[in-house]
Write a structure and sequence with these properties.
The chain is an all-alpha fold and about 425 residues long. Among the domains are: about 110 residues, no CATH class; about 55 residues. It is built from 21 helices and no strands. The radius of gyration is 39 Å and the shape is flat.
């Protein structure tokens, strides 16, 4: 018996029992007086009265006999007791039914897993014969076409081709793609890509990306702003793989924020697949702030110093997070011409951004800004800001260290930062 028929039979038996249980409750819930009246009416009519001593008909259904015995057993009990009894039986049968279904399903899954592993090895060997044995290539194609008549087998073939294509390059990889097209598996992937089910979309996008099929790019672009994070990420990954010139062109269409995980994944794809690195400054004017931040991060990672002017302009951006990232990128790219702007925006910045500005001054030491850093020591009361300003002064080497020593030894006026200077100079807080 096949799995659907087996489960249907179990469910029918289960609900048949539930129906008989409710019939029992209904029968028990009838008032005793009504049963006595029915008996008296039958006696008056001359009919034979069935008493407790009468034996039930031999051909009576066992469920009827079961219900009758239950009623006789609890005829003196309140209705509540009978209901509890039915609920207990109902729960027991429910648990047994679920257990049977779980065990059957587990056995089925185990058999399918074993069969799938066997087929994977078998099909992989046939694909390898097609790739590396030119003399039997036509025969291998015929065998694989026969295999590809089943949807289940076609999916295993696609999975095996993807696994092989990951580790193959050049002409061999092109042969895998050719086989994929010959067997008509492309249509399977396109059907998944255009399916209404998101998990089917994920499979379709992945298969099309590995096989370099671009016919569904519009559909993939449409899913870039999906509310489903997994689907959105798979669409991004697919578009990166399917791009020839600019792997990140999809950023122009991004409306939803790029999460940190998505940014890391996109960066790893660029490194692993040795893709062409675009000019990330082209996204500095994006309306999607997460895209702007991602572009700044990539400019810093790939040391795109030619984007320096754009980074400096972003120091005036209205969003605090964008300004914070731009400040940090200034330090990582060693943009000396950004120091005057950082000095000017310092007073109006948030505490977090002030700290990052001082760290940037420490990364780009410049003695001409010692007076500014000293003013931070004099005016700021926060210890962390004073520590960062002291480190920035120390990093200018001799001019800054001389000024710090002079401030530390000054006896005209004692200030709390003199303790900070003393510790910074002897390295205890590093």
């Amino acid at each position: 018996m096949r799995k659907p028929a087996r489960y249907i039979l179990i469910i029918l038996c289960y609900w048949f029992f539930v129906a008989s249980s409710f019939a029992l409750v209904r029968e028990w819930s009838d008032p005793p007086g009504r049963a006595m009246a029915d008996q008296a009416f039958r006696a008056a009519s001359g009919d034979t009265v069935v008493t407790a001593a009468n034996e039930p008909p031999a051909d009576e259904h066992f469920l009827v006999r079961y219900a009758r015995s239950m009623v006789n057993r609890f005829h003196k009990s309140p209705l509540f007791v009978t209901i509890l009894y039915v609920v207990i039986l109902y729960s027991i049968v429910t648990l047994i039914t679920l257990l049977i279904i779980i065990l059957l399903n587990r056995k089925r899954m185990s058999k399918e897993a074993e069969q799938r592993e066997y087929l994977k090895e078998e099909y992989q060997q046939r694909i390898m014969n097609y790739l590396f044995d030119e003399s039997s290539r036509d025969r291998s194609v015929a065998e694989l076409q026969e295999i590809a008549s089943s949807r289940y087998d076609r999916q295993i073939l696609i999975d095996q081709m993807i696994d092989l294509s990951i580790n193959l390059k050049g002409q061999i990889k092109n042969l895998v793609r050719d086989l994929y097209l010959i067997l008509g598996l492309k249509q399977d992937s396109l059907n998944k890509a255009y399916s209404r089910k998101w998990h089917e979309n994920v499979k379709g996008f992945r298969e099309l990306a590995y096989m370099n099929i671009k016919e569904a790019n519009d559909r993939i672009l449409d899913r870039l702003n999906s509310g489903n994070e997994i689907l959105r990420m798979e669409a991004q990954i697919a578009l990166v793989r399917l791009s020839d010139d600019n792997p990140y062109h999809f950023l122009d269409y991004m409306e939803r924020p790029l999460s940190k995980w998505e940014q890391i994944t996109l960066h790893e794809l660029l490194i692993q697949h040795n893709l062409k690195v675009p000019e990330f400054r082209q996204w500095f004017k994006s309306e999607n702030l997460s895209v702007v931040i991602f572009a700044l991060e990539m400019v810093a990672w790939f040391k795109q110093t030619e984007a320096g002017e754009g980074v400096i302009k972003l120091l005036q951006h209205e969003d605090e997070e964008v300004r914070y990232t731009a400040i940090r990128v200034c330090g990582e790219l060693d943009l000396k011409y950004g120091l005057p702007v950082l000095k000017n925006i310092y007073p109006g910045e948030t505490y977090r951004n002030k700290l990052e500005i001082l760290r940037t001054f420490a990364k780009i030491p410049n003695a001409s800004y010692l007076d500014f850093l000293k003013s931070v020591l004099d005016t700021e009361e926060d210890v962390q800001l004073q520590i960062q300003a002291t480190k920035a002064m120390e990093n200018t080497d001799e001019p800054g260290i001389s000024m710090l020593i002079k401030l530390m030894k000054s006896k005209s006026e004692y200030k709390n930062y003199q303790i900070i200077i003393r510790h910074v100079l002897d390295g205890r807080i590093y």
